[in-house]
Amino acid sequence: MKNNNSYLLSVVALFVGAFCMYAYIQKNPIVQEKVSAGESIVKNVNVTENGISSGIENVYDSVVVVENYQKLKLAGIGSGFIYDSKGYILTNHHVIDGASEIKVKLMDGETLIATVIGSDEYADIAVIKIDSSYVKRVAKIGDSSKMKVGDTVFTIGSPLSVDYAGTVTRGILSGKDRMVAVSVGNSSTNDWIMNVMQTDAAINPGNSGGPLCNVSGEVIGVNSMKIVKSEIEGIGFAIPIEDAIEYANLILKGEKIQRAYLGVSMTDFTTSSQYLRQEGITIDNTITSGVIVVEAVKGGPCADAGIKKGDVIIKIGKYDITSVAELRYYLYKYKPKEKIEIRVMRGKTEKLFNVTLGAN
To answer: Which residues are catalytic?
Structure first.
């Protein structure tokens, strides 16, 4: 009888133990990562997301609609967010570009006249301001470097029109450090490269300048652009918040953002051979990439160093160059008056020049 009771107790204990283990696994899913034969590492995996609605509440009232008026007519809209209690708002340069008047619509529907503090075309960052008495919430600035690909993100903005102000879209961080070529101003060519984060959260016209946030509602980026093609869906981009704040601080200080200057007119290898012939430029057929110098401005940094029309720039400093957009991106990593080495192909000969950069 004693043996039967011991057997029964053992079975009950085994059942209870198995049930407890099952319950634990359901609440704490695990994944095993094989690292070598016969070994594994067990990692806890959080498969739930709590508090995203709370995160939205944390930032929602700091988001605004930015209306660009030109000649008393509404020329375009975008988004922005209040990032300072004094009433300073971050948005994109292209959202406010060309405006004769900027109006800001708050989430409670109130419309205010905003002052443009300044902007930078290449960074696509602008700072505008409203009276601090209207500030109800200030967005908390996060840290984009702590974000991992696959993390949940959301954005708030005004896609398409003011009728959809405050629209929230959610997705994941699809990529970091994406180098995307863009045009500046009314240019029809890609003449600048931006280092951006990629997301599949829906970003439409009107979302530009709005915040990209982590699940806590901290701003990790400023929405800037979207690849719009019929065959492409779910690819949006945001400027890392650290870059945006760096430019915003320069704008608030009233400092002119100066960039290095070469003093050359340039073109890519995609330029038609007819155009090059018209300019009297002949490129050796062994050269297939680089940036063609169409003109070296007299008295400019490159001309003074000896670089001439028809030279093909293949390297500046430590960076190899294949396009005008790429050249500008790497050139702007250097400061005016800094000396750098520039390598060019002249005919079939590679030449090295020491150039003291100018200021633009």
So the answer is: 94, 124, 208
Rounded to an integer, what distance in angstroms lies between the CA atom of residue 296 and that of residue 90?
38
Torsion angle of the four alpha carbons 345, 348, 353, 357, in this order, in degrees rounded to the nearest 10: -20
Residue 278: C-alpha distances to residues 118, 153, 219, 263, 275 (Å)? 40, 51, 50, 21, 5
Q: Average model confidence (pLDDT) for the chain?
A: 84
Q: Quote the pTM value.
A: 0.76
Give the model's pLDDT for residue 257.
81
Q: Tell me: the pLDDT tens digits for 283-313?
A: 988 898 899 999 999 999 999 999 999 999 9
What is the Cα gyration radius of the chain? Answer: 28
> pLDDT tens-digit profile of 49-60?
555 888 999 999
